[in-house]
Amino acid sequence: MLEDIKQEKIKKLQNFVETGIDPYPAGPFEKECSKDVLKKEFGESAKIAGRIMLFRDMGNIAFLHIQDVCGRIQVVFNKKEFDGDYKFWVKNLDIGDFVGVEGERFDTKKGEKSILIKKITLLSKSILPLPDKHKALQDEEEKFRKRYLDILFNDDVREMIIKKDKFWNATRDFLKKRKFIEVETPVLETTPGGADADPFATHHKALDMDVYLRISMGELWQKRLMVAGLEKTFEIGRQFRNEGMDYEHLQDYTQMEFYWAYANYEKGMELVKELYQYVAKETFGTLKFKIRDFEVDLGAEWKQYDYAETIKEKTGVDIVTADIKEIEAKLEELGVKYEKDLNRARAVDNLWKYCRKQIAGPGFLVNEPLEVSPLAKKKKDNPNLVERFHVLIAGSELGNGYSELNDPIDQAERFEEQQKMRDAGDDEAQMHDRDFVEALEYGMPPTCGFGMSERVFSFLMNKTARECQIFPLMKPRK
Predict the structure, then answer these.
(1) Average pLDDT of 130-155?
(2) What whole-number distance in Å separates Cα of residue 259 and Cα of residue 144?
(3) Cβ neighbours of residue 58 under 8 Å, at least 6 residues apart?
(4) Residues 6 or more apart whose Cβ sits within 8 Å of residue 442
(5) Superfamily of domain 152-302+361-461
(6) For 8-55, how does the pLDDT look when each residue is reduced to its tens digit (9 = 90+)?
(7) Are 193 and 220 in contact, with CB atoms under 8 Å apart?
(8) What is the predicted pLDDT for the residue at 133?
(9) Taking the model in full, what pTM does it have?
(10) How far apart are CA 361 and CA 395, in angstroms?
(11) SS3 helix, strand, coil % of the chain, rounded to 5?
(12) Are 64 and 75 in contact (CB under 8 A)?
């Protein structure tokens, strides 16, 4: 059936070719936005272009709905008014074709604002029929696989794409207004750093060496820029982590990280609060959101949650004194799934993740243990804790920042501990980056670093991370 329809449409395409009409002209075709045309007065000239989404042939008159990025508008084919072969065009045009229309603003007898066609140009002939709007693309996998059709028929998806553009532009605008400069750092690295994550590996043919796709937005590179004397930098780009997929996580996604010399994590929290409020307002026009089962007001007080105190309050475990067996026993009791034979740092992190799911926010997690923070500066009053913060919203961590570690000796020791964890089987532990330690040995000023990913956007949209990517990764069809 589908093949029969396709062959019929190809015959129509050939009819255009035989008539001397190119079914795929190069353009250009100067057009107006359909919304702007609707504002014109009766009789004013109009010129639009888009896809035919509805076609009704009434004999000597035909009605078409043309859709462009601005919306839809009705155009009217009237045999008496059309400057061309009316029957040929009506017979050979189909729903799905792209056309350019020239004419004038016109109101139908029912008062619908339209365009009366004087001239029409075929811009692209479709040879596959569009699916029925109400019956097709109901399967989620099919929607993602044919995302272009999902966007075509679903205004919400199209609006999401527009909002995501606003989200990152607002982020960039906020930072640039505060004199941060945008930089680009390597995507391919010999030593992936800046996060606890399992990297993707590939081979560089020209240099004949194995490399990794970055797992952070150039954290160790941006800190090198602090060594170089730059004071405010940020990067927005794609990063990659070869880990699991769920509501919040994907393997490749957009991340922003900024680095601010002569600031600390407390100054960072102040700036991040302003950043989130600014971006939310610019993107969504509000600071109040319904996210999962939480009501979140970004304009309310941003509380601080102590890491150990919060875990003790919600689980009864004092992570300062508890050994790994006690922590694992509590994880079992709470029904938390975790990998067996994990180290203490991972066990504590799993316990915290159970607790955070109960916090609506907005707020900041503070006083995190040194063992789970290999790149953050120790607190002066308690060297077992670090100057680090996480943004807490709707039961999740939606941003991570800290006073950066700039002591090269301390950094080298922590890298060595991380490397031991990695050698013992922890694929997410960080590799020892000796070149970065050498850069620190030249001196890096006190610095605050912070990163947030597109997960923030997906939460504010109250959708999964996968839904908020335009083209999520799909397995090829078998």
Answers:
(1) 83
(2) 35
(3) none
(4) 227
(5) Bira Bifunctional Protein; Domain 2 (3.30.930.10)
(6) 999 999 999 999 999 999 989 999 999 999 999 999 999 999 999 999
(7) yes
(8) 66
(9) 0.90
(10) 8
(11) 35, 25, 40
(12) yes
| Residue in 258, 257, 342, 351 with CA at minimum distance from that of residue 310 | 351
Nearest Cα neighbor of 5 from 106, 126, 147 is: 126
Domain with CATH 3.30.930.10 in the chain: 152-302+361-461
Topology adopted by domain 2-130:
OB fold (Dihydrolipoamide Acetyltransferase, E2P) (2.40.50)
Are 192 and 237 in contact, with CB atoms under 8 Å apart? no
- Express as a percent the part of the chain with pLDDT over 70: 98
- Residue pair 256/234 in contact (Cβ under 8 Å)? The answer is yes
Which residue pairs, CB below 8 angstroms and at least 24 apart, start in 464-471? 464/247, 464/248, 465/247, 465/248, 465/249, 465/250, 465/253, 466/144, 466/245, 466/250, 467/160, 468/160, 468/164, 469/250, 469/253, 470/147, 470/151, 470/161, 470/164, 471/144, 471/147
Instruction: Kindly report, as residue ranges, where domains of CATH 2.40.50.140 are found in the chain.
Output: 2-130
Strands 303-306 and 363-366: parallel
142 pLDDT above the threshold of 70: yes
What was the pLDDT predicted at 359? Answer: 96
Q: Name residue, tokens 């240099």.
A: 207
373: buried, middle or exposed (CB in 10 Å: 19+, 13-18, 0-12)? buried
CA angle at residue 240 from 239 to 245, to 5 degrees? 125
Six token digits for residue 64:
């078409």
Dist. CA 288–CA 252, nearest whole Å: 28
Q: In this structure, what DSSP letter does residue 302 have?
A: -
